[in-house]
Fold this sequence. Notes:
Layout: H1 4-13, H2 28-46, E1 49-56, E2 62-64, E3 78-82, E4 103-107, E5 112-116, E6 126-133, H3 150-169, H4 189-205, E7 229-231, E8 234-237
Helix pairs in contact: 1-2, 1-3, 2-3, 3-4
Amino acid sequence: MADSGDIDAVRLRIRDISASTSVLMDDVDDAVDTAITQASYEYSRHKPYIGVVDVTGNGTPFYAVSNLTGYVDDWSRVTRIEYPADDVDSTHQPLYLDPVSDWEEYRTAATRYIFLIARSPSASETIRFWYTIPHVMDGSVDDTVENMDRPFVLDLAASYVCLMLAAEAAQSTDPDLPSESAAQSGQSPLDMAAKRFRQNYERHIGLGDNESPAPPASVAVTDWDPKAEHRRGVPYVGRSWLTHNSRR
Length: 248
């Protein structure tokens, strides 16, 4: 379950601040918890948490991913391997294996491995693995969402809540639900709020479009000469008009 402070923060964003008359009805905590979970999964795809584990050699080139705490099958991936990995001190010089030629994923019917090509570390050697894992967002000591990102992940959760409310309002006439009357843009207020919250998140995480939009066609400016000219070595530019001469 998400942290109660995070749940309250999402409710405040959508102005659902009354504990007794929530627009999310009786399942308010469950609904917001679901939205926060969805938001943390999306955040994990955009900015995954990097786990690091030291594994002792076993005399073979095969190392089960079960050694990598938090590794999620078909989601996590190993990003870097240091071998041999020593204790970090003033003389430490990390040696990284080539991700193209030195290791690959391997699996049997029962087990997934990282296969170290042409290497079989001994029991006196250590392999250091870096790998991606999903974030934990529950307010506990294991919570991995960075403080500077947290408000924007909660914005994304609020976006999901708005979409939930929009879906429910589309099938309901309950007066407690926000109005779904179409706005001038053709979008409902809830859809617009969902889009705004998502844009806040995407701009922060680096996914937003910060470039100035292209000017509309009606105000586009170009240097265009409609009058036919001929210069030495230069072909005709523009064209003559049948009427009004070149004052087109």
